[in-house]
Amino acid sequence: MTAPLIALATCEELPDLDPDDRLLADALRALDAEVAAPVWDDPAVEWGAFDLVLVRSPWDYHLKRAAFVAWAKEVAGVTALRNPADVIGWNTDKTYLRTLAERGVETVPTIWLPHGEPAPALAELLAERGWAGREAIVKPTIGLGSSGLMRVPAGDPAGDGAAHLRGLLADGDAMVQPFLPSLEREGELSLLFCDGELSHAVRKRPPAGEFRVQPNFGAVAEAARPTAEQVELARRTLAAASDVPPLYGRVDLVAGDDDQPLVMELELVEPTLYLAAAPGAAERFARAVLDAARAAAAAAQA
């Protein structure tokens, strides 16, 4: 049997992949797959030469989302793409959270503000939602990590939050959420799914004085054991997103004001999988990717 050729699509800044993805690449090669790491927007790449293109670390897509979504559709037209192009288009705009909420998923309360409309007075907007007297988060609906995010003091006394919101709305859609104190205390819980099944979970904890849970802010990730309630919410989130279980996915949960779990993010495009946090996780995902590549190759030959 010919070894499947699998692309782990990355960005120009990570030609050798992220450490997490290197674990996956090593696990795939141990299963006799051939692995390459092409840059997603390199015009010289022949995507049809791969049996499967796995979206892994295109961490500049938010700067050129339209081109990225178009690329996904192009790749899907010549070979197998995971996750699929329609999922990528939907999940790269955080308004997907509104869709999840409409489908009954408990998400962080959010005010959605469309591009081009006059920015409302932020303090009044918060008061109308019953959030007066508490901090808020203002960010764009298209972003990566914490890009474009501002934590606004209660009441926005200096007006910086309102100015930030005006700037965001001049460029695109924006969202406003109440700040959840649990982020500082315990961070986020991430549940990692492989082919629709729970693989492992990690707790991402920020350092003292910080609330953002990305490594560049000093956050650390450690293995965690989710509760039955948290797993159930994560499963409902995936089910609400798609009738077909994604090859990979990450559900990020945070504790709400009464400690109930809420969905902060559903990552179906390029999530870090935290493979080092769980023994056997890299091999588990590699087997699923390899199976998908072989199935795609067989379908192409049929």
Describe the structure.
The protein is α+β, with helices and mostly antiparallel strands and 302 residues long. It has three domains: 5-92 and 280-301, Rossmann fold (3-Layer(aba) Sandwich), CATH 3.40.50; 111-178, Dna Ligase, domain 1 (2-Layer Sandwich), CATH 3.30.1490; 182-268, 2-Layer Sandwich (D-amino Acid Aminotransferase, Chain A, domain 1). Helices cover 32% and strands 23% of the residues. The strands form three sheets. It has a five-stranded antiparallel beta sheet. It has a four-stranded parallel beta sheet with strand order 2-1-3-4, sandwiched between helices. Strand 1, helix 1 and strand 2 (34-36) form a beta-alpha-beta unit. The model has no long low-confidence stretch (mean pLDDT 95). It comes from Conexibacter arvalis.
Keywords:
302 residues; alpha+beta; Rossmann fold; Dna Ligase, domain 1; D-amino Acid Aminotransferase, Chain A, domain 1; 3 domains; 5-stranded antiparallel sheet; 4-stranded parallel sheet; 9 helices; 13 strands; 32% helix; globular
Q: Cα-atom Rg, whole angstroms? A: 20 Å
DSSP helix fraction: 25-40%
Major sheet: arrangement of strands: 11-10-9-12-13
Q: Count of DSSP helices?
A: 9
Give me the count of strands: 13
Give me a quick take on this structure.
The protein is α+β, with helices and mostly antiparallel strands and 302 residues long.
SSE topology:
Layout: E1 5-10, H1 19-30, E2 34-36, E3 52-57, H2 65-76, E4 80-82, H3 85-91, H4 96-102, E5 111-113, H5 122-128, E6 136-140, E7 150-152, H6 160-171, E8 174-178, H7 182-186, E9 188-194, E10 197-205, E11 220-223, H8 228-241, E12 248-255, E13 261-267, H9 281-301
Parallel strand pairs: 1-2, 1-3, 3-4
Antiparallel strand pairs: 5-8, 6-7, 6-8, 9-10, 9-12, 10-11, 12-13
Protein name: Glutathione synthase/RimK-type ligase-like ATP-grasp enzyme
Pfam families: GSH-S_ATP
GO molecular function: ATP binding; glutathione synthase activity; metal ion binding
